[in-house]
Amino acid sequence: xxxxxxxxxxxxxxxxxxxxxxxxxxxxxxxxxxxxxxxxxxxxxxxxxxxxxxxxxxxxxxxxxxxxxxxxxxxxxxxxxxxxxxxxxxxxxxxxxxxxxxxxxxxxxxxxxxxxxxxxxxxxxxxxxxxxxxxxxxxxxxxxxxxxxxxxxxxxxxxxxxxxxxxxxxxxxxxxxxxxxxxxxxxxxxxxxxxxxxxxxxxxxxxxxxxxxxxxxxxxxxxxxxxxxxxxxxxxxxxxxxxxxxxxxxxxxxxxxxxxxxxxxxxxxxxxxxxxxxxxxxxxxxxxxxxxxxxxxxxxxxxxxxxxxxxxxxxxxxxxxxxxxxxxxxxxxxxxxxxxxxxxxxxxxx
Length: 350
Ligand code: 1HN
Known about the structure:
The protein has 350 residues and is an alpha+beta fold. The protein contains eight helices and 22 strands. The strands form five sheets. Strands 1-19-16-21-14-13 form a six-stranded antiparallel β-sheet. It is globular and about 70 Å long. 1-hydroxynaphthalene-2-carboxylic acid binds next to strand 3, strand 4, strand 9 and strand 10.
């Protein structure tokens, strides 16, 4: 509460009610409920060519075994110390060196992995091993057992995306460590995709999960889909060609709390000004360009190329320009906002 300019008798009164666990709404109302969102986090870019060195350096200082998860958190500059990239989302870069294993655990916050570099890494979800290649998107839904490893000969890096800040705010955070390093092997690698990834599903199974039964969405397949669709699709002026990863059993988002997308912007494409209440983290897979956030004197330009990560928090007006043809992966809290009836967008000056 800003106490400047408050009369002595009111100040005395506020002090008295504070001792009784109360505060005057009328001094706070205009900050609490605003005509449009007022957001602390800011748009920001993480240059992977700079971060890569820092990340690899961490392997000399701490092993995955000691760290449990060797992750550099991407903290929003306006939320330092909060372990958050936006008010609702966590993002980090995780490194696994050849031969290392990140031990099995499960937690109530949901996580996704988006692979940035290296071959031979895997995540096992409830015992189903999924090998990862750059551009692959992997989910570890709330309370699923997961361990990671690297059976290749080079460092493996991926972006972790979690709903952790959201879940922490609600309070419902749980973690359980598995007694062994690795969860026992279950279905063969690729089983979930084979079973549910071809617009068919096994007869007789009743699925009542809030998350997709598919753990891995390989880049080769999603990239090919974009390539096929570009020939016969109109470009959305605000998104280019943008697809959402889905749970094939419901048609809804792949995860209960995180929305995930893959987007193609052709060479020299410029999107129109767009605002949305969802908080969005982008990982650049291919190409280069820039994202212009804000308008007029407040405008900020983030120049990006492949492997960079950038964030556009809630309600910032922004435009994206591709120089070379660009492919962007993104994740957001849209599904949460939609379920709560809060999600909004504003196209142009509408
Ligand atoms: C976690 O368990 C993982 O399982 C990655 O790989 C990132 C960030 C915050 C809290 C838990 C993982 C995490 C995390």
